[in-house]
Amino acid sequence: MDERYSRQMLFAPIGEQGQAKICTKHVLMIGAGALGSSNGEVLTRAGIGKLTIVDRDYVEASNLQRQQLYTEEDVEQKLPKAVAAKRRLKAINSNVEIRAVVGDATPEMLAELVGDVDLILDATDNFETRMAINDISQKFKIPWIYGACVGSFGMSFTILPGQTPCLNCLLKTLPVQGMTCDTVGIIAPTVQMVVAHQTAEALKVLVEDYEAIRSSFVSFDLWRNQYSSIKMSKAKDKGCLSCGEAPTYPYLEQENLMRSEVLCGRDTVQIRPPKHGDVDLDELSTHLSALRYEVKGNPYLLSVEMDGNRMVIFKDGRALIHGTKDIAQARSIYQRLLG
Amino acid sequence: MDERYSRQMLFAPIGEQGQAKICTKHVLMIGAGALGSSNGEVLTRAGIGKLTIVDRDYVEASNLQRQQLYTEEDVEQKLPKAVAAKRRLKAINSNVEIRAVVGDATPEMLAELVGDVDLILDATDNFETRMAINDISQKFKIPWIYGACVGSFGMSFTILPGQTPCLNCLLKTLPVQGMTCDTVGIIAPTVQMVVAHQTAEALKVLVEDYEAIRSSFVSFDLWRNQYSSIKMSKAKDKGCLSCGEAPTYPYLEQENLMRSEVLCGRDTVQIRPPKHGDVDLDELSTHLSALRYEVKGNPYLLSVEMDGNRMVIFKDGRALIHGTKDIAQARSIYQRLLG
Amino acid sequence: MNKILFFAHLKDAVGEESIRIDVSGKTVAEVKEFLAKEYELQKLDTAMTAVNEEFAGDEEVIEQGDEIAFIPPVSGG
Amino acid sequence: MNKILFFAHLKDAVGEESIRIDVSGKTVAEVKEFLAKEYELQKLDTAMTAVNEEFAGDEEVIEQGDEIAFIPPVSGG
């Protein structure tokens, strides 16, 4: 072990003591896509004690451009990402205990998994799951690290329960439609830069160097050569329902979650967002056409043919995903397009 | 191909045209350590036409904490890094032509390899090789991207012959002793952040989006939460011997190179830096002791036992590496400790 | 006078990285509304606002010389 | 008055991220020499210097209000 982690122990803020701490810590990582691949690899190489990986998707050809744990063989085998990730991570560091969970990170699942977890790493692709992570983090007093990216633009923020503002303080409400990697693209360097910030913060949390933790919200654009660091203490909201004085953890409650159900006898899953939104169908249509999907529409709905499924999206955010009875798959398709 | 690079083509500044360009370009990457692993993977996933990798080392246990292409099996097999890198990169993207060169990136070798190269990526661990890359870049009019890191501190700068200042403009002289990963450690997030900057710039060069290229010198410290971007146009020196009005490309000339020779019948390699330096033996001794090497010394020299070799370093920078006749190995040991 | 900085796709939508304009006396919400109309920016209502590199809520009032930046949160990963 | 920023290990050596001190009228080389003595910094002679976020050579003269930063180039990789 000494030899393996020698360069990390030589780094004074970690040292031998820090390394000993890292080796006993348990990180829960939600998502094994681009951010998850790279975050998972850095932490596994760093020698964390245990890594739990939750992901609902399988490896596809379009992932290979930026999801660093996966190979062409994983695509051929259509392996679930959590399983393919575990296989590669074990080859990299057999000392790390790795648990792969194939499934949707619902509030119930998060609450089950969070037992002895020291840190939650955000590697999801949608705000709904992030808001659930945020409430779980507050309820169980576990730090988490927000990270997100699209195009050449990325951001990160470290959330410590009881100290920093939380994601609900910043967003106040769930944005209905965000840009996603499936609508405006993504380049790998953006992923690496978000992960650099997330994993540096993760190491600080794991070695308990709280003074070094970044209190600002970082965002950057690598193609436009921008970098910004915003002080966040004023964002903390005493009335916040997630981290304020009387928390209710709203995103753990059924009524605020996206609902999905298999439509009886129709090989179709219906998805309803918690609040009626206002989807810009024109913009979505333009993006999806650029992606070479066949898109038809009228002012009230959009119909998209994609990889054997047909999705019909209504202006209020409701959608029907035809050609599947698999709720997790349907939610994944929905959130990849609508954020 | 459309599917594989779809998210990258969706990114507007690349698009289909940019992707077509990327697929025809040849990148020469010097070094396959931490920066090389990660740079090589990003570019291979991005689908560059050809990647030539030059490295003189083999995979060791202490590399695994941050060098993302390598596994425990590569360490067991003591594979040369260039060979292990090629193996993994082929599994990631079989469309990319990869050439692995095991050896020291001397000026002669660089001049031979540089034929149809569109971009040189710096992933070396010492200034001597960087200065040679810098002169080769100027002489053959090929852009290169400087990247370096140690601890939580990293930096990058894009050098376009005929436009930007060059590394010789900035450094003026070869620093005698720098901090290296082998003396003050390194954490993986620092590597990822340097690579994020290098590969974003690489993609801009490859798709020929010269307006987007970063003209500033970036440096950052992830543990100390610092980021700086310095405008560099004033650094351009008309009298610079590498990029000025009357270039002589000094770092391609034998008299300015580090000299190394096998000492006859002694199983020892002697290394002499081009100029007499002034090595701080006390500081070096402290670092090497922290690394658990056995160090003895007096005011004139330091003797270090390391992995079966014994190195004696003199105050003027000269060194004897006992226990080997392999010049490339001896140079590698020397530069890892002395930068 | 104030300087307003635009990040990421907002920079492209506006066509410049920053503009100079006097919005002192207005609240952040009013500035957002004004800019959304002026530059046909749809998504400013969900953008995070920073005034002098510090987080600012919608009701915060802009003063002379303040530098304002908008950061649109994204969900990709 | 001037602000001097220290990056990376220089920050630790000095003990602060920045100091305020009047060095106007001095050249960059003189400021380096002064700081090296004052804080026992060995490696300032090889550090790159920025004045107001722009590269500055050793002979550049510091003016009132200039912000100076030192970036030590490193060789690791």
Feature tags:
heterotetramer, A: 339 residues, alpha/beta, Rossmann fold, TATA-Binding Protein, 2 domains, eight-stranded mixed sheet, six-stranded antiparallel sheet, 12 helices, 23% strand, globular, C: 77 residues, alpha+beta, Ubiquitin-like (UB roll), five-stranded mixed sheet, 2 helices, 5 strands
Task: Describe the protein in words.
Chain A is of the alpha/beta class. Chain A has 2 domains: 6-252, 3-Layer(aba) Sandwich (Rossmann fold); 258-338, TATA-Binding Protein (2-Layer Sandwich), CATH 3.30.310.10. Chain A has 12 helices and 14 strands. Chain A has helices at 6-10, 15-22, 34-46, 72-76, 81-92, 107-113, 127-140, 167-171, 181-184, 188-206, 281-290, 327-338, and strands at residues 26-30, 50-55, 97-102, 119-122, 144-150, 153-159, 216-221, 226-231, 259-263, 268-272, 294-298, 301-306, 309-314, 319-322. In chain A, the strands form 2 sheets. Chain A has an 8-stranded mixed sheet, with helices on both faces. In chain A, α3 (34-46) crosses α10. The longest helix of chain A is centred in the middle third of the chain and has 19 residues, at 188-206. The radius of gyration of chain A is 20 Å and the shape is globular. Chain A starts with 5 loop residues before the first helix and ends with a helix. The mean pLDDT of chain A is 91. With 77 residues, chain C is an alpha+beta fold. Chain C is built from 2 helices and 5 strands; from the N terminus they run βαβαβββ. The longest helix of chain C is centred in the middle third of the chain and has 12 residues, at 28-39. Chain C has a single domain (2-71), classed as Ubiquitin-like (UB roll) (Roll). In chain C, β3 (48-51) and β4 form a beta hairpin. Chain C has helices at 8-14, 28-39; strands spanning 2-6, 18-21, 48-51, 54-56, 67-71. Helix content of chain C is 25%, strand content 27%. Classes of the chains: A alpha/beta (339), C alpha+beta (77).
